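Supplementary Methods, section 5.1.

A reviewer requested that the exact input to the structure prediction be made available. We therefore reproduce it here, unchanged from the version used in the analyses.
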Amino acid sequence: MKPNIVRLLPAICALTLASAASAHAGSATWSGQLNSNWNVFQNWSPQTVPNGPSDVATLGGSNNRDVYLAANTEVSGITFPKPFFPTAVNYGITVSPSLTLTISGTGITNNSGQAQNFVVAASDGTVGEAELFFTNSATAGSAIFTNNAPPVAGVDGGVTEFLDSSTAGSCTFINNADGEIKFYGSTSAGSGNFTNNGGDAGHFGGSMDFEFNSTAANATFINNGAPVTGGDAGTVFFGGSATAANGVFTNNGSSVSGSPGGLLEFFINATAGSATLIANKGTNGGGGGQILFVEDSTGGFAHVKLFGNGNLDISGHNAPGVTIGSIQGTGIVFLGGNNLTTGLNNLSTAFSGTIKDGGAPGGTGGSLTKLGNGKLTLSHTNSYTGGTTINGGTLLVRNKAGSATGSGAVQLNNGTLGGTGSIGNAVTIGNGNLAGAILLGGISPTSPGTLTINDPLSFNALSSYKCGLKRTTSDSGQVTAVAGQVSAFGVTINSDVSFTFIDSGTGTLPVGTVFTVIKNTSGLPISGRFSNLAQGSVFTSNGNKFKANYIGGSGNDLTLKVVQ
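The structure derived from this sequence is encoded token-by-token as follows.
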């Protein structure tokens, strides 16, 4: 009797489909015995292609180590095991144009002791770019990733996206022109290393986006400047409620005249967290690295370092301005009409660059506020016009020309104002309500010098003037001293203002030595007296007696004369 072919056909088809499915899905180890195509089952042992959310692909000791994807693929993880051979092997896995690789479970595990490389291909101009996705809690591990640049302008480079709560682990990313790396959801850059290269003319630089609640964590980032005229720089953007956390961001200047440097920008409600933000100088006329805060973004406790024409620009931020942890270096700060508040991280820093109004969106009336416990030293002429406020710590001015505090008034509410430079506008010490505002002539009480104020100086109640005296004894036994001094164009001392004298060094000063501790250049007498230093009063310090005279010097100065 002949078999009933019609009745057997459905069963044969079902068996064939089941066999095909078992051959083409499941965890497996790469052998590469046929070719380099990930999606050919004969290249795996057992002969099943890892392409499912629970599948793990293991890549070990094969001689065929250049692997490419020929179809959209998803795996839970990719493992590079510890080698059985004396030397581990390096793999290169390429996600081909228009295709996607999704890693949705354990992520990439590299126990091989060798670098493992992934390439996310750019569009070739005929089909779209490749995309690499990390989802759920997958990690990029310690692999090396390259987002390739496209061969022609106007198309996209490779794209890598981190979604859900995935992390970059300790990976290395090289993001070339037109390439993109995106962090969404609650993702993290881990302790990864990211380089965003500039693009040639007609191409964007490699860019990164942190959105929603993503974090840069402890990662390191380099944004390189445009490599050619008309090119674009590498960039990192923070939007939504994303944070730069403890990341380190280096924005390098361009070496090509007129071309932009690397860019770091914060917008919407993003924060710089406790990151280190660096903008380096350009060379050969190239633009410096750029750090921008716009909209309602915040600077957090970030430590900002600016060099050469590297710059921080807050002119496009919503009023009243931005607070950062600290600022240092030789670069440029653009305020526009906003206020920059610095000192939140309590570091002591020096800034010899320029703080000015203006910036990309423009604006005038920019101002500076110092807070925290640290010390900020300004040692260059600044031109911002909105004034300076000190609410904590120490502000030292050490400029050699112009005004270190711009052209606006200076208000010291709490902390110390001192230095050996000059201030171009009126200075008020204390607000009359709280103690803690101290004016100092010199760098410190043990390093006295002259602070010059080219406008009136006023002391309000509960403030104080701290005057240091540093004695020096020569080899021959001669004793000399330098006293701290404040020079101002008019001086007013209101009630309940104290005078503090700090005398350091050894040796007895000769009788008749006179120290001018306030030099009043206005031609009018000093108005008022310190509450603990009356006219003609005598006090003893370090073996000498000093007599106070508010009409000493040119007749309008406060002097201390050694009388014993």
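The first strand starts at residue 28 and ends at 30. These observations are discussed further in the main text.
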